[in-house]
């Protein structure tokens, strides 16, 4: 059973949802005796490991949301080079009002922010607005093409 996180005054029951968060030691200001948790950071079933770093797609989404000129749709492709080293390619749409001439600048800016905030290097490919698939359900963001044998 899962209750909503936005209702006030009702007990919170979350059982095996794979949400990643932490329990807080502080008491609720309203005086409720139930344990409180911090905000949801991601889900364990969404997490992937790249160069010994645990990464959640929500972290990538957060970084992309901070870059002006980038749209909200993206995909992460994990590949293995011929040398055996892993490579991450982030395909992201440019914003509707951005120009194609800004792609190189946007690509460098996204790669720099990913490196600064998540501590991994990646390649970034800027795509036309509307070129990535949209679904009514949860869209698949991570495609792992590595040979994990």
Task: Describe what this molecule looks like in 3D.
17% of the residues lie in helices and 28% in strands. A 4-stranded mixed β-sheet has the order 9-8-7-10. It is built from 2 helices and 10 strands, in the order ββββββαββαββ. The two termini are 37 Å apart. It is an alpha/beta fold and 149 residues long. It folds into 2 domains: 43 residues, no CATH class; 97 residues, ANL, C-terminal domain (GMP Synthetase, Chain A, domain 3, 2-Layer Sandwich). It is globular, with a radius of gyration of 19 Å.
Question: What's the CATH H-level superfamily name of the largest domain?
Answer: ANL, C-terminal domain
CATH architecture label name of the largest domain? 2-Layer Sandwich
Whole-number total of structural domains? 2
CATH topology of the largest domain: GMP Synthetase, Chain A, domain 3
Q: What percent of residues are in strands?
A: 25-35%
How are strands sequenced across the largest beta sheet?
A: 9-8-7-10
How many strands, which pairing sense, and closed or not: the largest β-sheet? 4 strands, mixed
Gross morphology is globular
Which labels suit this protein?
globular; alpha/beta; 10 strands; GMP Synthetase, Chain A, domain 3; four-stranded mixed beta sheet; 149 residues; single chain
Entry summary:
The protein has 149 residues and is of the alpha/beta class. It has helices spanning 57-65, 103-118, and strands at 19-20, 23-24, 36-37, 42-43, 48-50, 53-55, 70-80, 86-94, 123-127, 142-144. It folds into 2 domains: 1-43, no CATH class; 48-144, ANL, C-terminal domain (GMP Synthetase, Chain A, domain 3), CATH 3.30.300.30.
């Amino acid at each position: 059973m899962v209750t909503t996180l936005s209702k006030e005054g009702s007990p919170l029951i979350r059982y095996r949802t794979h949400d990643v968060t932490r329990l807080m030691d502080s008491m609720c200001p309203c005086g409720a005796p139930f344990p409180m948790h911090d905000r949801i950071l991601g889900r364990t079933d969404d997490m992937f490991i790249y160069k010994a770093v645990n990464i959640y797609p929500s972290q990538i989404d957060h970084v992309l949301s901070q870059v002006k000129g980038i749209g909200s749709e993206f995909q992460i492709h994990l590949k293995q080079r011929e040398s055996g080293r892993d490579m991450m390619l982030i395909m992201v749409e440019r914003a509707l009002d951005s120009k194609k001439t800004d792609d190189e600048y946007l690509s460098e800016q996204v790669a720099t922010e990913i490196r600064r905030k998540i501590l991994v290097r990646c390649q970034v490919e800027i795509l036309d607005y509307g070129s990535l698939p949209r679904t009514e359900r949860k869209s698949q963001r991570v495609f792992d093409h590595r040979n994990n044998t």
